[in-house]
Write the structure tokens for this entry.
Amino acid sequence: MANLLEIRGLYKRFDGSEVLSDINLNIKEGEVLVVVGPSGCGKSTLLRCINGLEEIQEGEIVFEGKKIDGKNTKWNLVRQKIGMVFQSYDLFPHMNIIDNVTLSPTKVQGVRKEEAVKNALTLLKRVGLDEKRDAYPRQLSGGQKQRVAIVRALCMNPKIMLFDEVTASLDPEVVREVLDCLLELAKEGMTMIIVTHEMAFAKAVADRVIFMDAGRIVEENDPKIFFNNPQSERAKRFLSRFDFNITQGD
Ligand SMILES: Nc1ncnc2c1ncn2[C@@H]1O[C@H](COP(=O)(O)OP(=O)(O)O)[C@@H](O)[C@H]1O
Ligand SMILES: [Mg+2]
């Protein structure tokens, strides 16, 4: 199958300092790619480049067979197909849940309100939040808000979803419900790039793992191999700080 997304020789610099170096990456439709690596290694910047939130200095990004790194890229169209969810959910506090998640489909994509609501309710139901349709963000827990943020991205009917440490700011007891949501999406065949520090989850969800350090992809591997017997010394050192193998077994 053709690649949905291809990154070739990508370099990203901020004021001359190199943050991403020679990134090469392919992702096929339906694949789940997990990106791990120490803080500051460039994971968020990589996702932001894919979504056009950062300009790149060298290389190319090809999405659905078209280069999207050019000045002529219609980012407002591309971003509808590349959903992104961050650590902070950024829901509009003055809008209820259903209005939050139907805003973009109606305003950006011109979907009729009734249809957007119907679609949104189906998605909210899947994450167990359809009964919160009229609630305001402040009435929801962090885990619930993050699940709404995921639904909001899904309401645009994206081709690929990018998740940047979506559980990092959540209380431990609600992390599971958000990760389950991502596992469910993976099962349904959504193409995803997931940046996470939840190693047991990464091992369970990934088709492929990428380990980054200092702006480079140091190792790309099958999750079974990566988490049991990483090939690079740097990945070994990084993984030794997590106890996922002890707590999760195989
Ligand atoms: N807007 C920016 N200007 C300058 N440097 C930045 C900017 N954004 C990120 N960086 C730097 O790029 C590097 C990678 O950051 P980031 O992609 O956030 O790493 P990660 O997500 O892996 O923790 C860090 O050294 C960070 O300080
Ligand atoms: Mg980050």
Summary: The two ends are 30 Å apart (CA to CA). The chain has one domain: 3-91+160-248. Confidence is low (pLDDT under 50) at residues 246-250.
